[in-house]
């Protein structure tokens, strides 16, 4: 901008005053009005660096990116900053809602596009997108993390197969009326995967149908005797076995 314009351009002078007062958004608006998009982006990046809240920092970074030319070399670094800010927020707050997942997805895609493969892998891992994690780790040459991921996947696959086998054993035992064996299989499956709500509900329903006290089942021919409690039972003609 020429010296003449600096002296007489109202928008420029308003922007300078706002920047000096720390009113960076007002300053950005003034620079944009004065047709100085690079200056508008600069003060917004200052605002982002000084923002303590992640949402405010990300908004300032997005607005700065809007003012930059597409071929500006600093665009890539701004996108990286956005991606990392989103990732940090996901790591701090967790990924529980649809909005959390959208945020983690954007972080992964931004960071991968800018070849920050390690950070992108971390974002995809929060989403459980293991194929994307493996791809980014391979592209980033993070061999140790990739091997750990593959080992973990193999271990998880083995665990899933064991749980499936135990559930089949439960179903077979239940079909034959062997509730104790069915309960044992379900408990073993839950030990392997304690977070499985469906398995826990199955065990709860099964235990609700079982006697609450000790029991003794005696089968003779076509007749079944079930003794509930802990009585003393005499067996044999003279009670030789009790």
The strand order across the widest sheet is 1-2
Tell me, briefly, the overall form. elongated
Helix-strand topology string: HHHHHHHHHHHHEE
Please give the number of β-strands: 2
Helix/strand structural class = mainly alpha
Residue ranges: pLDDT <50 for 5 or more in a row? none
Work out the strand percent: under 5%
Mean pLDDT: 84
Radius of gyration: 33 Å
What is the number of helices? 12
**Alpha carbon gap, first and last residue:** 106 Å
In percent, how helical is the residue content?
Answer: over 70%
Report the major sheet: 2 strands, antiparallel
Please outline what is shown here.
The chain has 242 residues and is mainly α. The protein has helices at 3-8, 10-20, 24-33, 37-50, 54-67, 74-93, 98-113, 117-127, 130-139, 143-175, 179-192, 197-208, and strands at residues 215-220, 223-228.
How would you portray this structure in words?
With 242 residues, this protein is mainly α. 71% of the residues lie in helices and 5% in strands. The chain has helices spanning 3-8, 10-20, 24-33, 37-50, 54-67, 74-93, 98-113, 117-127, 130-139, 143-175, 179-192, 197-208; strands spanning 215-220, 223-228. Strands 1-2 form a two-stranded antiparallel ribbon. The longest helix has 33 residues, at 143-175.
Supply database-style keywords.
mainly alpha, elongated, 71% helix, single chain, two-stranded antiparallel sheet, 242 residues, 5% strand
